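Exercise 7. Predict the joint structure of the components listed below.
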Amino acid sequence: MNSGLRRYGIWVVVALVGALCWGMLALSRGETLNAGWLLFAALASYAIAYRFYARFIQNKVLGTDDTRATPAERLNNGRDFEPMDRRVLFGHHFAAIAGAGPLVGPVLAAQMGFLPGTIWIIVGVVLAGAVQDMTILFFSMRRDGKSLGQMAREEIGPTGGAAALIAVLSIMVILLAVLALVVVLALAESPWGSFSLAMTIPIALLMGVYMRFLRPGRVLEVSVIGVALLIITIFGGGWIAESSSYAGAWTFTPNQLVFALIVYGFVASVLPVWLLLAPRDYLSAFMKIGTIALLAVGIAITLPPLHMPKFTEFAFNGAGPVFAGALFPFVFITIACGALSGFHALVASGTTPKLIQKESQVRMIGYGAMLVESFVAVMAIIAATALDPGVYFAMNANPALLGDTVQSAAQAVNGFGFSVDAQTLTGTAAAVGEESIIGRTGGAPTLAVGISQIFSAVIGGTALQAFWYHFAIMFEALFILTTVDAGTRVGRFMIQDLVGNVWRPFARTSWLPGNLIASALIVGAWGYFLYAGVNDPLGGINQLFPLFGIANQLLAAVALTVATTILIKMGKLRYAWVTALPLVFDAAVTLTASWQKIFSTDPAIGFFAQRAAAVESIESGKLSDTLKALKAESIDDAHQILVNTTVDGVLSILFAVMIIIVIADAVRVWYGLIWGGKQSELSEAPWQESHLDSEGKEIEREPVGAGR
Amino acid sequence: MPDGLLKPLRYAWDYLKEISGENADDRYLAIHTATHPGKRAMTRGEFYRWRQDYKYNNPGSRCP
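Solution:
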């Protein structure tokens, strides 16, 4: 009894703290809440979930076995298979799953108030996102690190496998386009931002040469040099922005930036990796971890009040100016990373499972790293909702609704039901060193303003606010570009692999013509969507972001389907709800969102409703009232809308069909296993005894000595 | 410096070296000398290139 109290007493306290914080969030009436409540509600929930639910999954559902040798131990080759210390692997895995996603999605979803996003981020990660990451990591580890696509083919069947492969490739394209769009929107008309991001290229080249020829493998010292140069560059950007002769040369229109990004993406994909990609990876990894840690400290010190209401009316009427659509399903589509992200299933199957020392460590690495990513998303929602809501809407609403001046923007924001005056908007822009903050969509600038207010409250005051703003912009743009580089490379290899099945030489990744053609194809694909997004008369982010969210959650559905199938095959039918329930919810969300995007008659939401309005305008030769209400300005706009909505609409249909195929194919397999009396064949690697202890030391032999 | 301060600093430094791959070469050498005694090991530059080339020719995905 006494030991039970000692053992669980602390957890009773944690549960009470969590309940109190959740109560404050739920029951507050009108008064401004402090971010601390949100922070501790999240931390207490994570702690309880990690201690109890994740352990339940580890022991009962998966049944991890530490006497069984992991692939890292059996196949150790010092390169991709290698037992890695769990704390180090945790860092690697976290760096691979955390990108711009958990920062952008919550900012956009903040238009519905702080509560819908917060609940989904915390409940979603505990019951769905972290569960997906952990189970896929475990199953891939039991299969020597097979990829999600391979597992889908082997466990479900060739149809489901093919659908999963097409899903992955098309998602990659949309993803890269949306991320590149975020960068374009953040840097357009900003000489400071453009300069500091452009300078990361020569810095990376310098680092690459240094690591290749001068001091091979000295990663830490070169990273310190790189980060120092980066900070200097950000200050340099401020000087450029104020200089009358250089500011103009570094001010770019969105279309110029699109062109620059496409050229950059192609060159980065073709150049040898040691020159640009590898050094950028180091630079962005250090910046990422550093800034996230800094943000956590900043929020903990300042504990800002949350000015955004709990719910705004846009949660219910679906008429939000940032993106259209009601709370269900669009909050769950907009916030993917941080709550449930299918992309993680690609990381969790592939690289990480080949490095795990002990089976039980999937809890810390799979479940734990995802909890930390969720915490990043919580910080993003705090940064966005601590802003003055008027400023938030003036930055994020579709620019067509806001007009070109601070007066028209202030008026539009008042029309949304929030108040802001023109001076506040001018003042905020001046404080962060920008010409204007009106209609700076994409999430990154909003987050940067939020971060700059938090950081400057701790270090430097208003004098450094502009620096912190551009620091945040640079940090987001830098690691988005790293993702674009890496994603382009993955896509290029996929294309070379696909075509290589038909024509052999193409599969050789070192063959230059194959490299050039496949790179051009993949860059051209995301470049097209990027260009269309930037020039979309209806606003690129609000059109493309839902598509990206649907695609990401579709991948999560594939992952959860694979996980459920394997659980049934392992004879764990009575625990299959652990992945099946999130799957049902995710499928409901994805299919409802697809349904609305395809069939909704509301032209603010449905692609084909928009298309019909465009067709009507083109046929009659003048803009229809519907398009005017959407703020289209000319017949040229109508032509553009026709093309964009056709492509977006067809993609929505494709995604919805894919998810239905994968799930239907899996249900066929489940039926055969449960009622059809089919024998289940597990494709696990056979059991072998482990010779490592939980710290990775050999159990039987003496550790071998070092030295050349 | 007091021991209480030195210890976490040393831990952080070791962790950084480990996570950045700075000491991957040392580990490779330890395993190499144990499993192939007498055979020539790769130099630091060779090892580093070998590892990097492999990593980028088999790219994993990462999250947005």
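Discussion. Strands of chain A lie at 33-34, 305-306.
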